[in-house]
Design a protein that fits this description.
With 875 residues, the chain is α/β, with parallel strands linked by helices. Helix content is 43%, strand content 19%. The two termini are 50 Å apart.
């Protein structure tokens, strides 16, 4: 008899078990040419923060994948790391400094960087510990950081290679500019906030133009209309003088372009080349001058005349008043709703403006494809279209294609200090531009005064190299050769554009390989009501670490997995986590029953087919083989919720509720009981690694469960005939149990049953003890046939009849009185509802949902009354 605690307390076990796994080397795969590699690059959490639900979901799913593949015999690498998170980290530290009355400019670049490095090291330690808390079996010996020496080398190598290939260039283009962060932002780093604002209509010569931003219109001199718009056809190509913001008239002209929507506003608009993405493209197309009127601080430039130096957004009312004074305001729409572009970090309104930045030319053909060359964009589209990379679920293919096809040149420079400083150097004497992985000692002109470009690279540039830079590229390492391309990239669908697309671009260019074979996208975690969880609203947000402390990691992991499907959001609430804690306890209790009812010799003995003796043994072994087959298929096809649900149902219903119950007493078969338990613990280990490993220590196994091989389907252990027979026994017992429950028979009370079994009489007689024990019977008659029994509940199961005499179940007179009273009350409710529904005033005037609710309740009452009348008839 094994000594095992009555209750499983996760907090007692989890840290110790994780430490055993890690120190044993279980997480560190070896390069073994006899084994297939399976690689996951962990999406690196930002070095600024703490573990949140998105990270926890990602860690749970990836750990299931990696444990499963490890158990299958793959050399499974899960490589962890953190991202320096340029803008986010710099903003965080700047806020901390501001509280002390400091700024980065007061400190200077060198001291400011040291402040960030101190903050990041503490944050990374926190993140490491929290990843361990989730049970993540990642290889800490290979942990990387986007600013470590090796990855920094990779960043410089790619930049120089792209520059030499003509892919990276410096030019003046329109960008998203955040005045607060004083930096550019990528298109997908811009959030949109719906707002109600004014839409202004101004008289502009022969047309009326519409705009939501009058402050950008100072230098507008070109009107653009749709070529097929009949209202303006007579104006296309014409030039005329216009009364506008200046004291003197300006010359304006009209062009036509299909980009214009004739249904929006008046169908006529003026072009603002320096402060609109569409207008910038039009200005380039028609060779129009591009003059900025708003600067990087959000203030007017000298081009705005008397408004120079003023804040552009705050001057809007003053500009409108000026135009009104000139009689140029046609009318103002006070109820216009638009989406305001804001910085994804600080939520400051974005200012589109022309800036000299570093860009990647995504449309330039540079990648050799047979006899031709294709662009970065074309290659990134091709590898998904041809199925080299599979996106799960595939409905996101369309989203990926749409984003990639509309991708413009990627702005990769940021005006911040934290990050990879751009490897470009300028000679102060001759102006030579030197692009190099190392800082040059002097220029070719002999000058030694050389300065590095002060800007840093977009964080997505370095994280775009993640799958191969973390394995040693540009060096030809053994890890890179063996583990790349990686197998799966698992992340939230909301990061498809931010990161997935950029990794595909960078990997196919730099390594000529795809970064990963599959992309698995999980959904967002939402509240019980389906609302988005927000850290700023404690009422909606769940802290995963709090839940781990309260319910254990295994329960939290299951709450993310079961019921969640790829690409769909999952709802999470504390009661759900508590429910899975109950399941973890069920596993513990069932295992405890086995362990205290078998001898040590049974634990150590090797299972043989001859150990299978009874019909129940054959049934459970068959069901177990089917479970292995179905769960393996689900795991291979990324149906983790389906796999988890099947194991959950088997554990709770078939193993605990049936086989364990049938194993009590003389029918105990230790060999089969142990075999099923060990297999079950192995199957469920990837989902709930802590409780299964804790139980495994009691099973006299030589090595930890994490090293155990994944079970294989064995068709020689299938017994279909016995399964059908056992299912009949289950039906008989289940029916007796359901009647007991329906009539409120106390669990302690035993009842009488009569079964007419026909040609199955002998078979049911064999299982008499099980039926009596599990049905809680004091008397059981099994006959071949017999007469109908009055005053008994009966059921037909194929050619079997079951009778449960009511006299043995209940006090008939007392039950008749109770049911009659209940029927009368329901009848009164029914008459009241019928009266309301027969009243035309109520039906016509009451809200539709109230009327529908009353009709639904009436239908429910009719069903209940029918059931009660049937019961009274039986009595």
């Amino acid at each position: 008899m094994k000594e095992i605690e009555k209750a499983y307390e996760a907090v007692k076990y989890e840290d110790e078990i994780y430490n055993k796994w890690e120190t044993s080397g279980a997480f560190t795969p070896k390069i073994d040419k006899k084994k297939k590699p399976f690689t996951i690059s962990m999406p690196p959490p930002n070095a600024t923060g703490t573990l949140h639900l998105g990270h926890a979901t990602m860690l749970a799913i990836q750990d299931i994948m990696i444990r499963y593949k490890r158990m299958q015999g793959f050399s499974a690498l899960w490589l962890p790391g953190t991202d320096h998170a340029g803008i986010a980290t710099q903003n965080r530290v700047e806020k901390m400094l501001a509280e002390k009355g400091q700024t980065r400019h007061k400190l200077g670049r060198e001291r400011f960087i040291k402040e960030i490095e101190l903050f990041v090291e503490g944050s990374r330690n926190t993140i490491r510990n929290q990843i361990r808390k989730m049970g993540a079996s990642c290889d800490w010996t290979r942990e990387r950081y986007t600013l470590d020496e090796g990855l920094s080398k990779a960043v410089k190598e790619v930049f120089v290679k792209m520059y030499n290939d003509g892919l990276i260039y410096r030019g003046s283009r329109i960008v998203n500019w955040c005045p607060r962060c004083a930096s550019t932002l990528a298109d997908d780093e811009v959030d949109y906030k719906e707002q109600k604002t004014k839409f202004y209509y101004f008289k502009y010569g022969p047309v009326v133009i519409g705009t939501a931003r009058p402050e950008t219109k100072f230098l507008d001199k070109t009107i653009v209309v749709h070529p097929n718009d009949r209202r303006y056809k007579h104006l296309i190509g014409k030039e005329f003088e216009v009364e506008w913001m200046d004291d003197c008239k300006i010359k304006a002209n009209v062009i036509a372009d299909k980009i214009i929507d004739p249904e929006f506003g008046t169908g006529a608009m003026t072009i603002t080349p320096a402060h609109s993405f569409e207008d910038f493209e039009l200005a380039q197309k028609y060779k129009l001058p591009i003059v900025p009127i708003i600067n990087e601080e959000g203030n007017f430039t000298g081009a705005a005349g008397n408004f120079a130096g003023k804040n552009a957004r705050k001057s809007r009312d003053e500009i409108v008043a000026l135009l009104e004074k000139k009689g140029l305001v046609d009318h103002i729409d006070e109820e216009y709703v638009n989406k305001l572009s804001v910085c994804y970090r600080c939520k400051t309104p974005i200012e589109p403006l022309v800036s000299k930045q570093w860009f990647i030319a995504v449309d330039k053909p540079v990648i050799k494809e047979g006899k031709k060359k294709i662009s970065l964009k074309q290659k990134a589209l091709e590898v998904v279209k041809k199925g080299k990379i599979q996106i799960i679920p595939d409905r996101f293919n369309k989203t990926y294609f749409n984003w990639m096809e509309n991708l413009h040149d990627w702005c990769i420079s940021r005006q911040i200090w934290w990050g990879h400083q751009i490897p470009v150097y300028y000679c102060s004497d001759c102006g030579e531009v030197i692009v190099s992985t190392e800082a040059p000692a002097k220029c070719k002109c002999g000058e030694i005064r050389i300065s590095q470009d002060p800007d840093t690279l977009d964080t997505w540039f370095s994280s775009g190299l993640w799958t191969f830079s973390t394995l040693g590229w540009p060096d030809k390492t053994k890890d890179l050769d063996y583990f790349h391309p990686t197998s799966v990239m698992e992340t939230g669908y909301d990061i498809l554009f931010f990161w997935i697309a950029r990794m595909i671009i960078m990997s196919t260019y730099a390594t000529h390989e795809i970064p990963f074979e599959k992309v698995y996208l999980h959904g967002l975690v939402r509240t019980r009501e389906g609302k988005k969880m927000s850290k700023s609203d404690p009422a909606t947000c769940i802290d995963p670490l709090d839940m781990i402390e309260k319910y254990g990691t295994d329960a939290l992991r299951l709450s993310f997995i079961i019921g969640a499907t790829p690409g769909n959001d999952v709802r999470l609430y504390e009661e759900k986590i508590a429910g899975y804690r109950n399941f973890v306890n069920k596993i513990w209790n069932a295992s405890r029953f086995t362990l205290i009812n078998v001898d040590e010799k049974h634990l150590k003995s090797t299972f043989k087919k001859t150990d299978i003796k009874t019909r129940a043994d054959k049934w459970i072994m068959t069901r177990l083989q089917n479970l292995i087959k179905e769960v393996t298929d689900d795991m291979e096809n990324f149906r983790f919720s389906d796999a988890g649900t099947k194991i959950y149902n088997f554990t709770w219903c078939e193993y605990c509720d049936w086989y364990v119950e049938l194993s009590k007493g003389e029918q105990l078969n230790p060999e089969v009981l142990i075999r099923v338990l060990k297999t079950l613990l192995t199957l469920i280990h990837p989902f709930v690694p802590f409780v299964t490993e804790a139980l495994w220590t009691h099973l006299e196994e030589k090595e930890m469960l994490i090293y155990k091989k994944w079970p294989k389907y064995d068709k020689t252990l299938i017994f279909n005939k016995e399964v059908k027979e056992m299912e009949l026994i289950h039906q008989v017992i289940s029916y007796i149990r359901s009647v007991r429950s329906e009539y409120g028979v106390e669990p302690i009370k035993k009842i009488h049953a009569i079964i007419y079994a026909g040609n199955k009489t002998h078979f049911l007689e064999e299982k008499r003890d099980s039926i009596m024990k599990m049905g809680r019977l004091d008397k059981l008659e099994i006959l071949e046939k017999g007469d109908k029994i009055d005053k008994a509940v009966n059921l037909f199961l194929s050619d079997i009849e079951i009778y449960l005499p009511l006299a043995g179940l209940i006090d008939i007179e007392k039950e008749k009185a109770r049911l009659t009273k209940e029927r009368n009350l329901l009848d009164q409710d029914k008459q009241g509802i019928e009266s309301r529904l027969n009243n035309e005033n109520f039906v016509n005037k009451a809200p539709k949902e109230i009327v529908a609710k009353e009709k639904a309740r009436l239908e429910e009452l009719n069903q209940l009354l029918k059931q009660l009348n049937n019961k009274l008839k039986d009595l």
